[in-house]
Amino acid sequence: MNNQNLDALTPAYREQFKFSDENLVMLSWYARRILRTMSAGPARKVLSLGIGYQVLPRAIIEGLGSGLTRYTIVEGSREIIEAFRAETPLPPYTELVHSLFEEFHPKEKFDAIEMGFVLEHVNDPETMVLQYSRFLAPGGTLFVAVPNAKSLHRRIGYEAGVLDNLYRLSPEDLQLGHQRYFDYESLCKLVLDAGLKIVNVEGILLKPLTTCQLKSLSLPPAVVEGLLKVGAGYPDISNAIFIEATH
Fold first, then answer.
1. What pLDDT sits at residue 10?
2. Which of 4, 59, 84, 112 falls 20 to 30 Å from 217 in CA-CA distance?
């Protein structure tokens, strides 16, 4: 996928997109989780793959602040980069790199690398994880998050005859540029095959019903928070899977 193709995907990263509210909930939780680990590190040099909804880079800038010496963000869409520059004050330690993830080769290593909701997009996720594992400094942490093919709501849909294949991509998946689904086993294998050690696996959002069904319930924020907290303990059936790994 080239940079021009990536610009064509930008409408799916706006509020009008069908799943934007749900995506923002999961991204916010993911941001909270990685900041907890990064702060304990502490992480001084951090790399993010992608800007997306801007949730992650903003959270890292605000959450780690002056503790950072370098924050590098690699993004393949120039349109998304320019929107981020226009909407977010960037500290001097922030570097925006317009590049495909596969073509990025930094001159230094990082204490933390986050690729939240990236591997479902790329042509070769195995090579991607191996490539970026080499960019980790000693003791550094790689953070990965992906949608889960075997999420509870997808399993229920399959048993109900609504979904004929747990790994089938929806039209909305294609709008976002997704190429595949992972499950708990395949994601763990991918990370381990890159020579990394998994130090933590969690779920993101226990989702028993479809997005439209959940929206119709108008769940209060406390219940959504409860679904996030409970989901952390069930990565095999949560809506997304989160992994922390190191050398």
1. 59
2. 59
CATH code assigned at 117: 3.40.50.150
Contacts of 33 (CB under 8 A, 6+ apart): 143, 202, 242
Structural domain count, the chain: 1
Continuous segment of H or E residues that includes residue 75: strand 70-75
Report H helices in the chain. Answer: 3-7, 20-40, 55-64, 78-87, 125-133, 152-159, 171-175, 184-193, 211-217, 221-231
What are the pLDDT digits (tens) for 108-152?
999 999 999 999 999 999 999 999 999 999 999 999 999 999 999
Residue 115 backbone phi and psi in degrees, to 5: -125, 65
Contact indicator for 9, 175 with CB cutoff of 8 Å: yes
Q: Quick one: pLDDT at residue 7?
A: 63
Q: How far is CA 224 from the centre of its chain?
A: 19
Q: What is the pLDDT of residues 107-119, one digit of tens each?
A: 999 999 999 999 9
Task: Tell me, letter by letter, the H, E, C secondary structure of 45-70.
Answer: EEEEECCCCCHHHHHHHHHHHHHCCE
- Cα-Cα-Cα-Cα torsion 68, 133, 6, 182, nearest 10 degrees, comes to -120
Q: Can you tell me whether residue 140 is helix, strand or coil?
A: strand
Query: What average pLDDT does range 154-174 have in this prediction?
Result: 95
Query: 82 is in which domain, residue-wise?
Result: 3-246
- Give residue 234's region: left, alpha or beta (phi > 0; psi -120 to 50): beta
| Residues 207 and 240 sit within 8 Å (Cβ to Cβ) | no
For 210, list phi and psi in degrees, rounded to 5.
Answer: -70, 165
